[in-house]
Design a protein that fits this description.
The chain has 329 residues and is α+β, with helices and mostly antiparallel strands. It has helices at 4-10, 34-52, 55-71, 80-104, 133-139, 144-155, 160-167, 171-188, 195-211, 214-220, 245-259, 309-312, and strands at residues 221-230, 242-243, 263-270, 273-280, 283-292, 295-302, 327-328. The protein is 47% helix and 15% strand. Strands 2-1-6-5-4-3-7 form a 7-stranded mixed β-sheet. A hairpin with a 2-residue loop joins strand 5 (283-292) and strand 6. Helix 2 (34-52) runs parallel beside helix 4, helix 7 packs across helix 8 (171-188) and helix 9 packs across helix 11.
Length: 329
């Protein structure tokens, strides 16, 4: 988690005067700005989370935006929601530049931090496809500016001219950024099946994984399936992604002897689709998949407990093919 002062240091350089401020406008009635900020806070968090792939960092960004909102003369802001979105996006671009360097030195595979969309549906209320973990993982490979343009357009349907104002570039350049980002996302993944089908694939995967059933596992996987394990150097995990139907099935089957013994399953909804919190001695790890018509494309194991802070604290259930608290032996 990035400390507040870290964000302020990253964003400390000279900032251009936002075009949405009119210094000569007659002051509006003064208040503390809380009602306006609260009304757009879910969107600000949604922008920051999609850009950074971290709920903890997104919360820090939103807090920094609130402090800045308190420190300016709000009566001179012509369009408060647009101004707050602009401030959020620019802080995220600055932070994403340093985050990219940190992720390159991350021990093992870095995965986005999942969020519990059943506990806070507003996070995924607008164009939920851009919230999928598989998409967030692909966004990590874009430049921060490309990521911002894609998130603002694809997740929140901002008009191109407003995105241009936020990013301080011509509308034509914004269109090019969004087009390149769309192509990158489209090239990197297949169209997902429905949430219900995702759930059924995950249930079938867990059943086959428990038994170490190689045949059943291979039957669920797309040919180029990838298994990602994020332990962050703190929890034992595969150092690199495991790829290919046969290799992934062998890897999963090899884990069956210890992975599923004496654990409990809590079904949750993360990023708009089914996931599982697996608890062993009170310590959770998370599991979800991304599936297409060809089968399961990606398996994501969240082994570092801190990656689950935005999920495990809610305890929200999404249905129970296994009864809550039922131990798997």
């Amino acid at each position: 988690m990035i400390r507040q002062e870290g964000i302020q240091a990253v964003a400390a350089g000279p900032q251009p005067t936002p075009p949405l401020i009119r210094p000569d406008e007659e002051a509006r009635e003064q208040d503390d700005g809380l009602s306006i900020f609260a009304s757009v806070r879910p969107r600000l968090f949604g922008i920051a989370y999609r850009m950074l792939g971290s709920a903890a960092e997104a919360e820090d960004i939103v807090q920094d935006v609130w402090l800045r909102w308190q420190s300016i003369n709000r009566s001179t802001v012509e369009n408060p929601p647009a101004y707050l979105a602009m401030t959020t996006t620019r802080l995220c671009i600055n932070l994403a530049q340093s985050a990219h360097a940190r992720h390159e030195t991350y021990v093992g595979t870095w995965l986005p931090e999942p969020v519990d969309t059943s506990a806070d549906p507003a996070i995924g209320a607008e164009r939920g496809e851009a919230l999928k973990l598989a998409v967030l993982l692909l966004l990590e490979k874009l430049s921060p500016t490309e990521r911002a343009a894609y998130v603002l357009r694809e997740a929140f349907d901002y008009p191109y001219d407003q995105i241009g104002s936020i990013l301080q570039m011509e509308e034509a350049n914004v269109r090019q950024l969004v087009s390149r980002a769309r192509k990158h996302i489209a090239d990197g993944r297949r169209a997902s099946v429905s949430p219900g089908e995702q759930r059924r694939f995950l249930e079938a995967f867990i059943a086959a994984a428990q038994k170490g059933d190689m045949t059943a596992l291979e039957g669920l996987f797309a040919e180029d399936v990838i298994s990602y394990s994020d332990g962050g150097g703190l929890v034992r995990a595969a150092g690199v992604p495991v790829t290919g139907r046969k290799k992934v099935a062998t890897f999963i089957a090899a884990l069956s002897a210890w992975c599923w013994r004496g654990v409990t399953l809590d079904w949750v909804e993360t990023n708009g689709q089914a996931a599982v919190l697996v608890l062993r001695d009170g310590v959770p790890f998370g599991l979800t998949i991304d599936a297409s018509a060809q089968g399961i494309n990606e398996i994501m194991w969240f082994l570092r407990p801190s990656k689950l802070a935005a999920v495990s604290r809610s305890g929200q259930k999404v249905g129970e093919p296994y009864s809550a608290g039922h131990a798997i032996s």
